[in-house]
Amino acid sequence: MSTPDTSGYEELGNDIRLLGRLLGDVVREQAGDDTFELVESVRQIAVEGRRSGTSSVDDLQRTLGEQPIDQQLHVIRAFDWLSLLANTAEDVHVERRRRHHRRSGSGPQPGSLEAALDAISSTGTPIDAIASVVADLQVSPVITAHPTEVRRKTILDVLGVIADLLEERSLLDDSDPARAEIEAALDVKILTLWQTAILRLSKLRVSDEINEALRYYDASLFETIPTLERDLERLAADRLGVDDLDASSVVSMGSWIGGDRDGNPFVTAEVMRLAIQRQAETALGHHLDALYALSTELSMSARLITPTPELEALAEASEDESRFRADEPYRRALRGMYARLYAFADHVLDAGAGALGGPPPRVPLEAYPSLDQLLADLDVVAASLRSHGARDLAEASVEPVRRAVATFGAHLCGLDMRQNSAVHEAVVADLFAQAGVCPDYLELDEDARVEILSAELTSPRGLRHRTAVYSDQTRQELAVLDAAAEAVAELGARAVPHYVISMATAVSDVLEVAVLLKEIGLMTVATDDAPASAQLDIVPLFETIGDLAASAATVTALMEHPTYRDLVASRGNRQEVMIGYSDSNKDGGYLSSQWNLFHAQASLLAAADDAGVRLRLFHGRGGTVGRGGGPAYQAILAQPAGSVDRAIRVTEQGEMVAAKYAQPALARRNLETLVAATLHASCRSADAADAPDPRYVAAMNDMASTAFDAYQRLVYGDDRFVTFFRQITPTNEIATLNVGSRPASRKKSQAIEDLRAIPWVFGWTQCRLMIPAWFGAGSAFDTFAAADDANADLLTEMYGSWGFFRTIIDNMGMVLAKADIDIGRRYADVLVEDDSTRSDIFGRIEQEHATTRTWHAHITGSPDPLNDNPLLARSLRNRYPYLDPLHVMQVDLLRRFRDGDDDELVQRGIQLTINAIATGIRNSG
Predict the structure, then answer these.
(1) Whether residue 638 is found in the same domain as residue 548
(2) Which terminal CB of the chain, N or C, has fewer other CB atoms within 10 Å?
């Protein structure tokens, strides 16, 4: 086992101390000496408490409890900003270490493309087989609207400048006078933060979420994705001898923001059109700027070079008669290309190309019919440059523009539609009733539903008619579908590539969507000349433990349906299936969820193989371990062999979007990791020899069942648990944070079943119990070990030999290190009103936590749950002292608020502590 590199900590420590000192100076200057002394006193109490291993809660309570609310708010803000600044320094340090390794020649770093190829080659995989996989790679991160990003865009922008300044400072010698100038600039930025409101005044609208997501394209993605694809092509040429690889479709971004209606009533047809238009504006604005810049850069004179006839033809077609460019064929050609793209944008954008801000063309030309013609023209420009010895210029200047056009097109990213199966069945029932097809569709059993849906999928006539009176829900859903069809007609099929069905449980759930797609022209019925076809993928999402268990049977039945099988054939003979980490975890707990997800993938792969189709899995992972988070490379490699078949889609949610895409270096590291892991996993054999040991499978079956029962007894088996959860966590107060447009619950209900997974995890994170990521595991290990004397050793063997088991244990360790029973007890003692409820339920949580920690130590061989992750261990040690006072203040403020203190500052303090604790933990939901 390799030892992680821990060198360079001193440099990181210096950065954090510098930022802390500058923040202290700002606090003293802005809030006064008394506030500064209070913050410093609180910091010292917390640090000493952690250093000595004794609880500092009582001392913190004595120091803070009698302070006026305005002073408490200053303390909360100071610790929040300190955590954010420390996070920024850590991000800068990670990239600094990567550069150090590259300079020192220490070899490819884990997660890189080079390291993945080395690992694959070491297994003896033939080069041609590796090249075949590389040629077919498709990796799609999908940004969702799940609201756990509590930081404002304004703050993220300032932190980006601070990161750049730290980076610049690290490149200077200690004696360089420029360091003082950088520190002065840092001081100004920290002052800016202190005088900036941490929280939003109003709740985000979907339109705001759309714009928030789009900013990452200019921030990093436009630069990073084409560069990564180019590097992959060069690596394929150097390492595999493949000189003609086109990697322009390896990374394709996706989005749910504006297309995901599941539980969000604010996503309407108008919102979906806005999302598509804003995406198109972002893409086309970028391409127009790039073409205009290229037309300025390529100043070659025909008096000095001889362009190809094809380039000359492009120059003539531009109708550019400027005497200043008479001998500059490239500039004339590119001005013409700009004019044609401008006309294309003017046609497809509701606001017209003028809204993009670029200069209108001097000579208007006919619009490109599609961007394929623009790509062909860029090929002409590059080929002409190469013909007269300017190959390097073609590679450096033209190819990036071409790659961006090929990758982002006019659509920027694929906007998925998503809706709950219950809505689909209601809409189809309304359509059938109004068309006289079936008056009581909702009363039919599954077989009868499939029969009537199958008949409808062979009929060329539509269901809608002008005299029908549809429900509001039906009209709204059909309007969204019509907006999708318009987008596909204008921008191509890449604009709306998938339809995700939440809570899919049966064949009829999928066929209902096919009927709706037929209604808007995105599914075509079979004719004598052609089979049925679809213009987008229909993607069932299996979320609960029960649905995951039945998923393979559902897919098998779908593949046996003749019309649906034709639809799959029309989509490249590949069926995409989404699996949900969040709801399966909320349903059955971490260990049970992870095993059922693994088992479902293996079963789905077998079902697809039997049907002769390829399977693409879409992983609905959140940022936290309780929602499927954790290191991406290990997570992808831990999937069943063969389940990652050259393609993967994965959600990027909430605060993880900024953490991964706010800066080019972060985006490069994240995307390269995803591509490298997908390449590595796709080259593994799916043969029986690579299947897990049957003893391991049997063990997991037993433990997952025990863990499920233990978790269900706690969460769903005690009527008092809902009250306990609502009192010990600030979940009700979290709903007041203006972090997203989506309601916290699917229904107006206090039930755990109706609560969304994000506030469920967010709430447990705030009180530091974090039960979604470990509860039930200790009982499972205990019961399994008690059944046979050899089982305790088997668990250790599984950890050492099976990547899947090691990954879930290591991820659990990360959460066990962040969980704090003493902090959780403080929440329980102060906020849970009933003594017996508190004693019984918290007592069970405390006992299970102790059992889980004991078994984690046995399985890994270390009492430290972060023994293999010293980087995270050090980070947590540094930030824990700053979390302790925040928890003390949050508990006190929650108690005051719930006792009837409706002071606006008390409510603001609660919101600020929620934000600050999420920042300190570095993930929320």
Answers:
(1) no
(2) N
What local confidence, expressed as pLDDT, does residue 5 receive? 45
Contacts of 154 (CB under 8 A, 6+ apart): 196
Residues 6+ away with beta carbon under 8 Å from 176 = none
Q: What's residue 3's pLDDT?
A: 40
> Do 177 and 248 fall within a single domain?
no
Q: Is the same domain home to 790 and 876?
A: yes
Choose, from 74, 146, 287, 599, the residue flagged as catalytic. 146
Residue 619 lies in a domain: no
Burial class (CB in 10 A: 0-12, 13-18, 19+), 374: buried
Of the residues 74, 286, 498, 586, only one is catalytic, namely 586
Residue 146 annotated to the active site: yes
The domain boundary, picked from 641, 668, 691, lies at: 691
**∠ CA(566), CA(252), CA(423), 5° rounding?**
55
Return phi, psi of residue 651, to 5°. -75, 145
For residue 156, give both structure tokens.
């993220």
Residue 618 located in a structural domain: no
Same domain? For 127 and 69 the reply is: no
The residues, any chain, with a CB within 8 Å of residue 386's CB and separated by 6 or more, are: 394
> pLDDT per residue over 431-487, tens digit each?
999 999 999 999 999 999 999 999 999 999 999 998 999 999 999 999 999 999 999
Tell me what pLDDT residue 828 has: 97
Q: What is the CA radius of gyration of the chain?
A: 29
3-class state of residue 736 by DSSP: coil
Query: Do residues 459 and 584 both lie within one domain?
Result: yes
- Number of domain units in the chain: 5
Q: How far is CA 113 from CA 109, 232, 400, 673, 873, in A?
A: 9, 8, 20, 8, 27
Terminal alpha carbon distance of the chain: 32
Answer yes or no: 586 catalytic: yes
Q: Is residue 224 part of a domain?
A: yes
Structure tokens at 595: 């095993």
Last residue of a domain, one of 584, 612, 640: 612
- Are 742 and 888 members of one domain? yes
Residues lower than pLDDT 50 in the chain:
1-7, 147-148, 688, 738-742, 744, 925
pLDDT score for 336: 96
Residue 700 sits in which domain range? 694-908
Helices (H), 260-351: 269-297, 309-317, 329-348
- Residues 772, 814 share a domain: yes
pLDDT digits (tens, 9 = 90+) for 157-208: 899 899 999 999 988 888 899 999 999 999 999 999 999 988 776 667 888 8
Q: Output the CA angle 270-274-275, nearest 5 degrees.
A: 120
Residue 823, exposed/middle/buried by CB under 10 A (0-12, 13-18, 19+)? Answer: buried
Is 707 part of any domain? yes
- Measured CA to CA, the distance from residue 787 to residue 777 in angstroms comes to 16
> Do residues 515 and 452 lie in contact, with contact meaning Cβ atoms separated by under 8 Å?
no
**Do 523 and 387 reside in the same domain of the chain?**
no
